[in-house]
Amino acid sequence: MIRRLAIIGVGLIGGSLALSLRRSGAVEEVIGCGRSAENLERAQALGVIDRGCHDPAEAAAGADLVVICVPLRAMRGVFAALEHAVEPGTVVTDAGSVKGSVVEDARAVFGTPPPWLVPGHPIAGTENSGVEAAFAELYDRRRVILTPTPQNPQDAVERVAAMWRAAGAQVVRMEADHHDEVLAATSHLPHALAYALVDALAGWDDRQEIFEYAAGGFRDFTRIASSDPAMWRDICTANRDHLVAALRRYQQDLGRLTDALAAGDDEQVLRVFENAQEARAGFLRLLEGRS
Ligand SMILES: NC(=O)c1ccc[n+]([C@@H]2O[C@H](COP(=O)([O-])OP(=O)(O)OC[C@H]3O[C@@H](n4cnc5c(N)ncnc54)[C@H](O)[C@@H]3O)[C@@H](O)[C@H]2O)c1
Ligand SMILES: O=C(O)C(=O)C[C@]1(C(=O)O)C=C[C@@H](O)C=C1
Fold it and tell me: In what residue span(s) does the Prephenate/arogenate dehydrogenase domain sit (predicted)?
């Protein structure tokens, strides 16, 4: 049971966490921290938080768990605000989509990452932002990756893991750089490709006609290009090296497919499509296996 939970950044991710913990009866009181009074009032009206404030230090006072759910660019400022505010026994975690940059931010503010800060990342989300988009089921059977630092005591890591399990998620641990390499391929690359595709087509001369006759395939492929551009700028630049490597590798594969098509190598084109279909079926089985 969490007596007092502080959510810094009450949007899709933080709001959904509060709702899922309320659903399971795992939290007594939720304090929300944000910049705009209007958003905090909305969060309170939606039953996401019990009360709000603007200062992370005030939100953290007396909390047993603090979860930082702000865009990556705001992470360092929140750490600075928490520096002298975290009381003994309080554990802090975050939901940032890149973990190496969060540890770097912690080093920049604290020197050594503090024992009470356990970095984490829920692998769940949607293309919608803000507290209005939050829902209690977001983390059901989804993975949460924790990337503990050498400074973290075991009980702090376990406290964060127990919170995510109470929210419905399955928790795994990983080294931060490995996390960033894997997520570059499965999350950051697809987002970059979706944005790039829609941006490219929007710039073609006959764009009116292109969008006029696009349907389900185009909508499914590009859903994630509706995500918040600033948030994704932060994610892609925070994971620049791994994302650039993934993009270059993908460009090579796309180049080979382009060559096969241009050369009339229909067998090769079919091989690529068959491999992809089989691999995606395996991915869907993996997802179903978790439900
Ligand atoms: N959206 C996703 O699919 C997803 C999935 C997993 C993790 N994440 C990560 O979770 C974090 C939050 O993403 P989200 O989708 O909930 O975004 P969001 O825009 O829905 O919510 C972020 C909230 O933080 C607030 N905020 C910004 N700067 C702040 C500051 N300095 N102090 C306090 N509040 C501040 C914003 O006003 C907003 O209410 C990001 O770091 C993102 O990388 C996102
Ligand atoms: O489903 C979506 O819309 C998402 O973008 C969720 C998604 C992803 O799967 O890439 C996005 C960012 C995260 O850090 C984790 C999950």
Answer: 3-291
Which one-letter DSSP state was computed for residue 22? H
Domain pair 2-174 / 179-289, same fold: no
Cβ(33) – ligand 1 distance below 6 Å = yes
This prediction has a pTM of: 0.97
- H/E element holding 246? helix 240-262
- Pocket-forming residues, ligand 2, beta carbon under 6 Å: 97, 123-127, 187, 224, 227
pLDDT, tens digit, for every residue of 207-227?
A: 778 888 899 999 999 999 999
**What is the pLDDT, as a whole number, of residue 290?**
78
Candidate of 97, 132, 147 to mutate for ligand 1, largest count of ligand atoms within 8 Å of Cβ: 97
Task: Identify which ligand lies nearest to the alpha carbon of 193.
Answer: 2
Mean pLDDT, residues 252-273: 98
What phi-psi label fits residue 9: left (phi over 0), alpha (psi between -120 and 50 degrees) or beta?
Answer: left
CATH number of 179-289: 1.10.3660.10
CATH 3.40.50.10140, domain 2-174, yes or no: no
Q: Give domain limits for the chain.
A: 2-174, 179-289
ipTM associated with this complex: 0.98
Torsion sign across C-alpha atoms 33, 121, 145, 171: positive
